[in-house]
Amino acid sequence: MIKKMSEILEKAKSSNKKKIVVVAAAEDEHVLGSLFEAKKNGIIDFKLVGDKEKIEEIAKKENLSLDNIIIIDEKNPAQSCKKAVEIIKEAGGDILMKGMVSTAELLKAVLNKDGGLKKSSVLSHIALFQSPYYHKLLGVTDAAMNVAPTIEEKIEIINNATTVFHALGIDKPKIAVIGAVEVVNPKMPPTIDAALLTMMNKRGQIKGCEVDGPLALDNAVSMEAAKQKKIDSSVAGDADCIVCPNIESGNVLYKSLNFLGGAVAAAVIVGAQVPIVLTSRADSEESKMLSIALASIMG
């Protein structure tokens, strides 16, 4: 069972077969830097699809050797996404990574009905955080993909998150569906969704995890707060993953943990045939490499 980010790195390094990352629109110095760092650590190999001239310029500027690196020259970002997806479809790669292209353009190639990589009915973003104020890794979903998920979409978001925790060796992750309060309030639809998801889990309609909600954030991560509210739940105070009611709350929680909470993060998009890594320019180099390592242990 993995409880620290360092253990994710160690598991990625110990794999018998290095995963191959295929990068769409790879002419991005931050992405290239994280790839070379991950390769140096023995985590992955990679293939680059993008503007070869710009990739070579960046490599020269950053003193990165492109010897033995496969580069597929494609100057059009949209076409580079399609080619990257094709390479993975042809068993030429295990992880898709976004370079200098919009997320929408990359996902358009992933979700293409004819040649895409769609697997689940819903793609979702999950971030893992190691916080100095929490006793284990904490997942947050969804901070980047699903704007106002329906209850059907929340089921798939939970299923997607569960696969990530299973890859970490956590057989029955504790999933907290949060809201502003820990009681069902008809005026607050997220609390109704949370109660329905909890009941569906108890009846075996959502499997492989333990779901409870609604829980306010403090009840989900603080045993003391849960005791004060007299909440009888094995999830309360010990959550492995927080399911947020909408993208605004997820995004605020994600960035609060990163920029105010002193946490280190690794994030992937799940629900496709392969993990997808989307790093932000604001992410630290450590976070980018951890995201690649997380994706590499999910295959």
Summarize this, please?
With 299 residues, this protein is an alpha/beta fold. 40% of the residues lie in helices and 18% in strands.
List keywords for this structure.
alpha/beta; five-stranded parallel sheet; single chain; 11 strands; 11 helices; 299 residues; 18% strand; 2 domains; Rossmann fold; six-stranded mixed sheet
Question: Can you tell me about this structure?
Answer:
This protein is of the alpha/beta class and 299 residues long. Helix content is 40%, strand content 18%. It contains eleven helices and eleven strands. It has helices at 5-13, 29-40, 52-61, 77-89, 103-110, 151-167, 189-202, 217-221, 223-228, 247-259, 285-296; strands spanning 19-24, 44-50, 70-73, 95-98, 124-130, 138-141, 174-178, 210-215, 241-243, 264-270, 276-277. The strands form two sheets. Strands 8-7-9-6-5-10 form a six-stranded mixed beta sheet, sandwiched between helices. Strands 3-2-1-4-11 form a five-stranded parallel beta sheet, sandwiched between helices. The protein starts with a helix and ends with a helix. The model has no long low-confidence stretch (mean pLDDT 95).
